[in-house]
Amino acid sequence: MQKGRLADAAQAVGAYRSRSTVTADWSGEQEAEHLLGLLHQKAEQPEQALLHHLAAGDVDELATTAKLLPENPLDFPPHQNLIELANWYRVSAFRAAAATADLLPDDQARGWLDAALAELDLNRPTLPRAASAAHAAFAAVAALLSASTPEQAQRFLSHSNPLLDRKPGTHRRTDREHMQALIVIAHTHPALRETAIRSMCRALLCADHLAVSILNRGVAALALCPDIVAEQCTPPAREGNTNAALALVLVETNIAEAATAARSQLPLPPPGSGSEDHPRKDLGTLALLAAAVGAPEREALSDSLIAHALHREDAAFQRRDALHALAALAPRLGHDTRARHFTTAMEIARGHHDGSADDDLPNEPFDRFRFNLGPTTLRPDGLLAAACLARPGQQSADVSACALEILQTHDGDRETLVRALFQLQWQDVHLEPASLAIHSDHLIRLLATGLWCEAEDADPVTGQVLAGDRNALVRQYMAMHADKAHLQELLREDPRRSVRSRVPLHQS
What we know:
By secondary structure, the chain is mainly alpha-helical. 62% of the residues lie in helices and 0% in strands. The longest helix has 17 residues, at 6-22.
């Protein structure tokens, strides 16, 4: 196989599997299925590889193979009597369904949902030293709920709501998938939206890791029912609960009630003053909470963030945190303060303040442990702060020109750079969508999509190319923002549910 002689490898592995079957060598059968899966991966046949890895119980390889699948609908129905099969097979099957959920036709997705919900209803104990089929079923449900019927969504809520009855800070292995599922239900099932959002509010008050999941990915869902968020989060926010205060700020309801939590963390200590007794504060959280305090306190915080960003005795990732926090705070600053900090942010974007502690951290080839603290340059992060501080016109044009120069000379953090350009008004971004639409990096093509969707005289050929892009994120953006009827029809037929479902949601 390693020499590329695939026909000889297939013959040898097939013979090995047959011999293992005849001699009742179960471990040999599984190894043969594993090797056949790798063989089909090497032959660029991921659909066949998926079935062999499923038969081998290769959970990790299933996820890897799913990423290799072509952008076509996947015919992968559940086994008719899945919940009666062995535990290891059910684990692999549900993990495979979760990994391939976006490509499954809706009818097959609902079939997998029925099987996974039946697994959860049985509530079987986990075997010693064995993976949990219930946990795998939970992951499958979370990935497939966007195709669910209201009855299936209600069954999941009935099963999962008791999981939030716990002591504060308690962790469950299904927490991440649970929060993901609640967010999906809030978006896709209006009749169950209030129930899902109340559960989300309970969760973010229950444990910090649950709050992180909700506040990072579920703010748009919470914003669908701001009155419920205000009802559930205002009392704890008044008592200084940071997660409740963040929810009020991000949903933009009862923001003044977050003042107690904000002032408990202000003012920000000067750079270099952290210690074990007074650990470094989360600058991003502080920047968001500052919406609840007065303008003088926000401007003082912005000055402190700039001081932290310029402090070369800190590591680059710490200075980067300060710049991202300044970007979050920028919309709430006064004109003079924004202009003053814009100049400094542009100096950072041009590389004038690169050079931080630990930039030269040694990593030798034979080191047993290696450390990577991220990029040493702060140019993309300075550009993000400058873009959020910039006024339309000349300042935005300066940011756009600096972004183009970084694109041409650096291959670093393109995600931050694209985020920066998305903060500007599109007429100030002097880049051509047609030339960006054929770039190898999907983030640059996503930028091209944003420019194309906002252009009044958009080139139809470029739009057609972007609507058929090989990356799902590009097509998702087109589905939400392209207003051309023929492109909407094309995107409604997209093989990925995450793309085609966004067209009617955008229209409504």
